[in-house]
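Posting this for the archive.
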Amino acid sequence: MPRLTQSLPKYRKHRASGQAVVTIGGRDHYLGPHRSRVSRVLYDRLMAEYLANGRLFTPQDPGSGGVPVSKVLKAYWQFCTGYYVKNGVQTNECEAIRLVLADTLPFRDGPDRATATAPLLPGLTRGGQHALLRPHASCRQRIHNG
């Protein structure tokens, strides 16, 4: 699809949800109920940012929002210690998760920030996802070999 050179991205209705939506740089921005004052104000704000940036879409700086991956991992560990309990004793699942989280220590304090849009593992960016998925084989070996 050709780039817009003169016109602004269109304010339109998302039929399934009834919300106002505008697509900038291939990303949909939902603005609230279609034809509402709030959605028009949000559209105007987005268009002002879009024009001020030279008609380029730049996503928010990763350092300006989100949660550090280390905080997500800590919160997940706290959840696991309370959830994986049987008859008042932590199950073996906690040990498996602890080993995986321990293997991610070199990765967890990096520049990655968690955002609400990460698709595979909620709360982690792509780098954080690879850090959690990669050590899985070594975790299994530790559990099965002793």
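Helices lie at 37-52, 69-83, 92-103, 105-108, 126-133, 136-145. The chain has six helices and seven strands.
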